[in-house]
Amino acid sequence: xxxxxxxxDVARNPVDFATPLWAATGEQIFLRPLIPSDGEKLARFLxxxxxxxxxxxxxxxxxxxxxxxLCDAIARYDKLRLVLLDGGQSIVGLLEFSFDLTGGDIAxxxxxxxxxxxxxxxxxxxxxxxxxxxxxxxxxxxxxxxEIVGRFGRSRVILWGGVLADNGRAIRYYEKNGFRRVGGFxxxxxxxxxxxxIVLEE
Length: 202
Ligand SMILES: CC(C)(COP(=O)(O)OP(=O)(O)OC[C@H]1O[C@@H](n2cnc3c(N)ncnc32)[C@H](O)[C@@H]1OP(=O)(O)O)[C@@H](O)C(=O)NCCC(=O)NCCS
Prior knowledge:
32% of the residues lie in helices and 27% in strands. The protein is an alpha+beta fold. β1 (19-22) and β2 (28-33) form a beta hairpin.
């Protein structure tokens, strides 16, 4: 059996975790881990998100400060972040995992009768640039993402902060890709959210 990956392994050799993919248009796109020199590109991606995308996928800010914070966090905490690059090498997606569950997650899932296991479960949050949404790209990325988190020993994925109950597209995206709705809750901002989970195939 291969030893489990660590965040330090990914940070040391990001190229080993890069995956070329093809959009339906034939354009080659590229999934790879976030690297320390991505600050400027990531800031451009965040700044370009529309108000609606910012409502559906929330960051501390949408500028260089958050971009630098995310780059500084590489391999320092519990987060694995990957980016999607278009043919011109601009960042057009940010795919985030946390390998640390919150007390709130653990309590909610226990209430649903679906207890979480901090050793095998992780949290996932995807954000695509507006012009890249609704084109099947989010779905295209998932097998490569599941392969990477599987190598961290993770076999179940839940949604990071749930999904807003009025985010019909994301709910459809998760369901068509094998996530199951397990319950609902109201978040700290008073918004209705759904909790969803997927069990990854061996
Ligand atoms: C959520 C997200 C990652 C999904 O990726 P994507 O590439 O857009 O998803 P896909 O194109 O693979 O699938 C979207 C599905 O939703 C459907 N859809 C689109 N708008 C919809 C709506 N308003 N209601 C219901 N379904 C909708 C699409 O038709 C498609 O389903 P289909 O393949 O059966 O036709 C991406 O849209 C995104 O980044 N959105 C903004 C941020 C966000 O919501 N993040 C998730 C936070 S939990």
